[in-house]
Design goal:
alpha+beta; 250 residues; 15 strands; 8-stranded antiparallel barrel; 5-stranded mixed sheet
Length: 250
């Protein structure tokens, strides 16, 4: 079979690059830099969706309460001085209006929920794990897919590389968890389950210069860059979307 390689995080987050003109205010002109300002902190969206948003270099990290995954968000400009924050899969998750109001978009609420800042906060870091911890996790994740989706897959990693240091193991564990979440997400319907059951029998996690997915024979290889932290691996949403792209080309 042809070797397929899909780079996940090389996304061009193109928004409407039309900033609003500064308007006169009683004390002078409103600074353009303050329009659509993204404020890190903890938030409540709707009645019960709680999340934390923090700055991470040029990007942002998002963590929902009661969900272990940490998402990397990429910021872009929107009309009227607003900003948008997107997943690495390209979907908009947060929109900040020029006047500062924030809206959260979820699978359950695609039309958006108003979000209110409630305080300061920090997202969790990848846990410290031993080699045996991550090997046991690989077996547990395979059992999860078998029990929940009826998929008989072997989940493994490049153990020699993963054993080098704790930082690499931590991100390898995070990558493995996101990959299984992505497989779980993709196999939510019968079509996805059938594709995975017939096309994949092994999931391999390896290091590389950037996060990618490639399918050769029946081995799905997922790569991550341990030097880039959260940005060095794909989210579960990006994994699921990349799977769709892989199977659509076969």
């Amino acid at each position: 079979m042809a070797r397929l390689c899909i780079a996940i995080l090389t996304l061009i987050l193109a928004g409407a690059l039309v900033p609003a003109r500064a308007q006169d205010a009683p004390n002078g002109k409103l600074s353009l830099e303050r329009l659509g300002e993204i404020q890190p902190g903890t938030y409540l969206a709707g009645d019960d969706v709680r999340f934390t948003l923090v700055k991470d270099r040029d990007n942002y990290l998002l963590h929902f309460d009661n969900n272990p995954e940490v998402f990397v968000l990429y910021a872009g400009h929107a009309s009227l001085g607003g900003r948008v924050l997107k997943y690495d899969s390209g979907e908009t998750v947060l929109q900040v209006a020029g006047w500062g109001g924030m809206t959260l978009y979820t699978d359950a609420a695609p039309t958006g929920l108003p979000a209110t800042r409630t305080g300061d906060g920090a997202v969790p870091m990848p846990p410290s794990v031993s080699l045996s911890d991550i090997q046991n996790a690989a077996e547990d994740e395979a059992q999860h897919l078998a029990y929940m989706r009826g998929l008989r897959l072997t989940v493994t990693a490049d153990w020699a590389t993963v054993s080098i240091d704790g930082a690499t193991r931590a991100l390898a564990f995070d990558t493995m968890e996101n990959t299984v979440r992505g497989l779980d997400r993709f196999s939510y319907n019968a079509v996805g389950r059938e594709l995975l059951a017939h096309r994949i029998d092994t999931v391999m996690v390896e290091t590389a210069g950037k996060p990618t997915l490639r399918l050769k024979a029946k081995t799905l290889t997922v790569t991550f860059n341990p030097a880039r932290g959260f940005e060095g691996r794909a989210s579960s949403r990006a994994i699921s979307r990349a799977l769709g792209s892989i199977f659509s080309k076969r």
